[in-house]
Backbone:
């Protein structure tokens, strides 16, 4: 993979071009509403998405990392369940994120371009002209603050929206921060509707 940068575009140390894709990038889904389940020396990651383009883009991302994945209709009409197959390549992720059967960010949890991109594909979108929202899991309140700190560490301080304000979600506001987010997550995935990506 070439790290040559296009003229006028600076290569980010945390962006999608900074390192090769890895199955552990699916940690980005766990920052939001994604779930991880362990079985023996393997684990799988799953998330419910609200639009077909999101499911298709996650399948492409899984294949790029050598993971088998499937999509099927969710329990809520119009929603789609994405999940990887159990894989030893995800075992470290499962071990790091589970305390018993409860999902929790591991010590030192950090975000970077590839993880943020997967989170944005699954649960992100433009929120007006100068904001982008990344949805969180409804039952993940104990770790929302840790995820917010990880966003701030990569230059994306965000406002936590509670359920009464249309959340749970983190809202990144301002042109400079959106430019930083765009630098980190890269180009829109194939099939993303116009105006939804950064």
Residues:
């Amino acid at each position: 993979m070439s790290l040559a940068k296009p003229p006028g575009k600076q290569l980010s140390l945390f962006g999608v071009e900074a390192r090769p894709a890895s199955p552990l990038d699916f940690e980005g889904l766990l920052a939001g509403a994604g779930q991880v389940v362990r079985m023996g020396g393997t684990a799988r990651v799953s998330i419910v998405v609200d639009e077909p383009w999101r499911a298709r883009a996650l399948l492409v991302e899984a294949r790029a990392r050598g993971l088998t994945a499937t999509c099927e209709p969710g329990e809520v009409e119009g929603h789609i369940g994405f999940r990887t197959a159990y894989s030893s390549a995800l075992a470290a992720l499962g071990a790091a994120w589970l305390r018993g059967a409860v999902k929790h960010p591991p010590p030192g949890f950090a975000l970077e371009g590839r993880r943020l991109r997967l989170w944005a594909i699954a649960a992100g979108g433009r929120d007006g002209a100068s904001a982008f929202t990344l949805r969180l899991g409804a039952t993940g309140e104990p770790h929302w603050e840790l995820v917010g700190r990880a966003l701030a560490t990569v230059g994306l301080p965000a406002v936590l929206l509670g359920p009464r304000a249309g959340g749970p979600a983190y809202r990144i506001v301002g042109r400079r921060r959106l430019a930083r987010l765009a630098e980190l997550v890269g180009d829109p995935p194939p099939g993303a509707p116009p105006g939804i990506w950064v």
The first strand starts at residue 35 and ends at 39. The beta strands are 35-39, 42-49, 69-73, 80-84, 98-99, 102-103, 124-126, 131-135, 159-161, 169-173. The mean pLDDT is 90. Helices lie at 27-31, 52-64, 91-97, 113-123, 141-153, 175-185.
